[in-house]
Amino acid sequence: LFFSYLLFFLIILFLHKLFFHYYLVCKLLNLKCQLFLNFFLLQFVQLYPSSPFLKAIKEKTSRLSEADKAWNIISPSSNREDYISFLLSYPQSIYAQECISRLDSLDWLDANSDNTVESYTQYLRKHSKGHFAQLAKKCIQDLNNLIPTDEEKSTANYIVNTYFEKVNQRNAEG
To answer: 57 near 45, Cβ under 8 Å?
Structure first.
């Protein structure tokens, strides 16, 4: 009898450690471990139906399931508001980092599509350390180099005015 209790205790200890370590690894590495984590939580509920942690575990599995369903709905979307709403609803979700990454990409696509100093600056305000931050800085630099200096404007103005004066002079001569 003593050995069966000891064995039972060791199994409980093993499962608890296994679950705890797996959870830490998932959290640290930000792995998408939704199904495996749910599996462990459900196994725990089945093994220990009178556990004092039962209510908390059921709430956690319900929340994980809810976040998973919500992610599956919005993940194909290209709508910024969907991702912002998801982050506000599930800030601790295992999908939060992916959500932030997609927002970064969507904002980059908008900035790149506009291709203005203002749009790239706005991107950098939102994502100063984003995936495309260095490229946005380069684009701003390139666009600023395209802005003509006062001397270049004056020269271009002179050339255009001279051209039209010559055209008008030639037309007047017949």
So the answer is: yes
